[in-house]
User: What shape does this take?
Amino acid sequence: MRRRSFLAMGSAAAALAAGMAPVAGPALAESFDVVRTEAEWRAILNEAQFSVLRKEATERPGTSPLLKEHRKGSFHCVGCDLAAYSSETKFDSGTGWPSFWEALPGAIGTRVDRSLFMERVEVHCRRCGGHFGHIFDDGPPPTGKRHCLNGLALSFRPASA
Assistant: This one.
């Protein structure tokens, strides 16, 4: 038993030292205004949305209808309906995912994501913790940021005429 414990602790320490520590899901990392059980999330989200928002999955590139959404309006979290991005900051990044150079003020949270043997900035809904995607430093002016998002995490609401 002691040898097994020693090996387990050694493996965990090595993983931490190598920067490969497992990343907790958004709901575990901080507290949020909107909190639901897994069953409640499953009741309001379809399977693909649940996988992205609650399990941090990534949709296949080029599959989001939001890629072709060019009307004026706002993009909302499908988990809690918080307005998160304006159409004014949307751009075509050529990556296959909806991209924005800035979020609406106070709409998102971020954390370090060390999955896939790299360090990235994960972006999530400030109100419910739903996973949106990642932020990269290769976007256009004025921020130079690219919020590379899963369309499954968002809904579009056109601006009123």
Summary: The two ends are 70 Å apart (CA to CA). Residues 1-28 have pLDDT under 50 and may be disordered.
